[in-house]
Amino acid sequence: MTQATSARSAPHRPAGARRSDPGPLPLSATTVSAPRLAALVGGFDRSPAYLGLADALTLLIGDGRIGYGTRLPSERDLTEALAVSRTTVTRAYAALRETGFAEARQGAGTFARLPGGRGRAHDRALLPGPDDAEAIDLNCAAASAPPGLAAAFAEAAALLPAHLGGHGYFPAGMPALQAAIAASYAARGLPTDPAQVLVTPGALSAAAIVARAFAGPGSRVLVESPVYPNATGAIRNAGARLVPCPVDPDGWDLDAVASTLRRSRPALAYLVPDFQNPTGLLMADEERERYASYLRAAGTVAVVDEAHQALALDGQAMPAPFALHSPDTITLGSASKSFWGGLRLGWVRAPHHRVEALTQARLVLDLGSPVMEQLVLTRLLAGGPVLPEHVTRLRTQRDALAASVRSRLPGWRFRLPGGGLALWCELPAARASALADEAERRGVLVAPGPVFAADGGLDRFVRLPWSRPAAELDDAVARLAEAWDVVARGRGRSHTARDRVTVA
Q: Is the separation of the CB atoms in 376 and 174 below 8 Å?
């Protein structure tokens, strides 16, 4: 999603200056009524009114609450709905057109658009191949920005000038953001001093910092399998040796965990107990207590990735943080799943005695995270760990994806997770890699099980994120069903698969 720019700060463009062609708008567009739009803009700033209205409309279009190509109300209808002058609406629409957030079509009306055209509404920059602009990307388990995010950026931008007189380096994070993150743990029953928090450019960066600090060359690190592959890559890059421990589709085998810990005595154990990526499993409190006891006996420090923790989609109470069962736990957090992947911020929460080592490891990588993003996240966390609209949207998409798989691919097995971002589907035969190749020919990108295998295998599984709109997910599953029919009958053509990059 394009980050909205404010009409107040729009650069001046001389009359007659040309902008790049945005491409055609739909011939039959969705329409937003004047009363509905008046409710959406709410109490917009009226000093002056036309700029306040333009700002409010820019944010609505930018964060997707007014979709690309939507026909806006006529100037007359909106004037009546808002009880403002016709000049106010006329000038606001003109400001939208100048900044690229609207386009007038003679005889048809004014339509919402985005600077750069429709392609900006679905940024494909993270796709693994150069020819995938039209593909349905189910390789990336990350949703588009939820409504309200652009407003947080605009509010943070107003605060930025107060920080421009300093150097802008905050190796541990801006104090206000450290305090907000600490407060979020306290709200979950885990008292946290802001000094225990280290803000990083994403949870993956946090994992790399922890590995660099506490898992040097030759050390052992227990990892789940299947597991988020980029995290294991960060651990390997620190020189550590991975010790895989299987996670079954129905849960953690804690007897196997205990045996593996006794045998290998790893320095660290990388765990994802909250809507585990990719299985979606949620570890119960009693399982956490038992796991923590095994870690204590082995002298192993837990590194707990909570990137999906806030994404409880069914209103259920969540288990206590793992660190309550094991106080020496190092916890990783992320803004990418709770808010937006483009908000590149994560953090580490660690016991006081480990903070200095983490800070030193961090300083050889960078000197701090961007100030603007930290201001944005501070404001977002003031409203809670996740935006309510984000949860509602993800729940709708999860249910739509599950229904489509059940209908179109009845032979596939999966457990419906209570949160997170993906289904972990077991196929009738070990053909996931072949399926991914065949699906790619049909314009769907998926990550087969071997991508998540720490020690090989898992070709009976495929991960399907519910990160796209429901209609797009149904289309993707229809294409997957066609691809599976080909693969299951052994009719797939030979194909040289590219390297698969799972970005989230």
A: no
Residue that has been written with the tokens 């409309």 in this structure: 57
Beta bridge partners of 304: 271, 331
Statement: residue 120 has pLDDT above 60:
no
| Strand bridging mode 268-271 / 220-225 | parallel
- The residue assigned the tokens 């990137």 is 307
Two structure tokens written together for 4: 């909205």
The helix or strand, by DSSP H or E, that contains position 132, with its residue range, turns out to be none
Using a 10 angstrom Cβ sphere, with 0-12 exposed, 13-18 middle and 19 or more buried, the burial of residue 176 is middle
460, 429 contact by CB (below 8 A): yes
Inform me whether the pLDDT recorded for 67 exceeds 80.
Answer: no
Residue 133 has pLDDT above 70, yes or no: no
Q: Which of 141, 125, 136 is nearest to 440 (CA)?
A: 136
- 449/73 Cα distance (integer angstroms): 48
C-alpha distance across the termini of the chain, in Å? 17
How far is it, in rounded angstroms, from Cα 23 to Cα 327?
56
As to burial, measured by CB atoms within 10 angstroms (0-12 exposed, 13-18 middle, 19+ buried), residue 177 is buried
Amino acid at 128: P
pLDDT at residue 28 above 80? Answer: no
pLDDT of residue 498 exceeding 90: no
Would you say 282 and 319 are in contact if contact means Cβ atoms under 8 Å apart? yes
Q: Alpha-carbon distance 489 to 481, whole Å?
A: 12
Joined together, the tokens standing for residue 444 give 């769907």
- Tell how strand 461-465 and strand 422-426 pair up: antiparallel
d(CA 275, CA 172): 28
Residues in the chain: 504
User: Phi/psi class of residue 148: alpha, beta or left (left: φ > 0; alpha: ψ in -120 to 50)?
Assistant: left
3-state secondary structure 227-254: CCHHHHHHHHHCCCEEEEEEEECCEECH
Q: Is the pTM of this model over 0.85?
A: no
In angstroms, the Cα distances linking 310 to 256, 365, 385, 444 are: 28, 28, 6, 28
